[in-house]
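Long-time lurker, first post. I've been practising inverse folding by hand and with some scripts of my own, and I keep getting stuck on stretches where the structure tokens seem ambiguous. Below is the full token string for one chain I'm working on. Before anyone asks, I'm not after the true native sequence, just a reasonable design that respects the backbone. If someone could post their per-position residues I'd love to compare against what I wrote down in my notebook.
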């Protein structure tokens, strides 16, 4: 039976996430109500504006049910803004979060819109091929607690972290043609009792997807060289999408 996965549909790249999940065999749908949240076995929170999304979660009565589901083991993945929403706190700001992930994040850490870029990332849990990391007004992790695994870094800062059933990425995998991170997330649903999607890998090891090379390419645009990861500077990419 295909795993039923939700994408929070208050802001962000909902359609893009749903498309990738369905390509991997998951039963993916948008989540905007408590009933829709109750129906899924895992949730992705896409990019957007974090303070707005927190207010909308409260307004629609989703904050506490979501927090309870995650505390009971439901897999959760926050991308870009979604990682900010999941964090323990936000550096330099008194900003409300869901406090699902023991990290401190800094908003817009890699620069504003003009600094958006695609950078190849080394992510060993996904295999040896670099992953195309699309950074758009992206946060980074400034502090991670003892229970947090750092799975990828850029410019000396964590950009992919996991703590049990919660994971966060500073970048936007849904804007690339590389499905490995979505497959990795689907693998996290298996211990939660919802069957395996086509292409969903083991949550603790390298994963791939049928018919997709492990180094599947990403967006159009200039790709930053591996050396840029050591320089602390993200090169600009003419293919980066504008964000609000």
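-- Answer (accepted) --
I ran through it position by position. Result:
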């Amino acid at each position: 039976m295909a795993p039923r996965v939700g994408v929070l549909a208050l802001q962000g790249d909902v359609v893009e996430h749903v498309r990738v999940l369905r390509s991997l065999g998951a039963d993916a749908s948008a989540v905007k109500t408590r009933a829709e949240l109750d129906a899924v076995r895992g949730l992705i929170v896409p990019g957007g504006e974090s303070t707005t999304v927190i207010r909308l979660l409260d307004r629609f009565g989703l904050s506490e049910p979501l927090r309870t589901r995650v505390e009971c083991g439901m897999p959760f993945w926050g991308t870009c803004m979604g990682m900010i929403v999941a964090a323990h706190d936000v550096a330099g700001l008194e900003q409300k979060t869901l406090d699902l992930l023991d990290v401190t994040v800094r908003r817009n850490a890699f620069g504003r819109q003009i600094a958006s870029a695609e950078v190849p990332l080394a992510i060993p849990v996904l295999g040896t091929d670099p992953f195309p990391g699309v950074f758009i007004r992206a946060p980074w992790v400034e502090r991670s607690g003892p229970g947090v695994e750092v799975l990828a870094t850029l410019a000396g800062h964590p950009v992919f972290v996991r703590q049990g059933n919660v994971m966060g990425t500073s970048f936007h995998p849904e804007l690339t043609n590389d499905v490995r991170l979505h497959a990795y997330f689907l693998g996290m649903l298996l211990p939660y009792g919802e069957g395996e999607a086509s292409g969903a890998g083991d949550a603790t090891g390298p994963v791939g997807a049928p018919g997709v090379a492990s180094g599947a390419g990403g967006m159009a645009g200039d790709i930053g060289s591996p050396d840029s990861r050591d320089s602390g500077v993200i090169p600009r990419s003419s293919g980066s999408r504008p964000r609000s």
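A couple of notes from the structure itself: The longest strand covers residues 157-163. The helical segments are 14-23, 34-38, 50-59, 63-71, 81-86, 180-188, 228-231. Happy to go over any region you disagree with.
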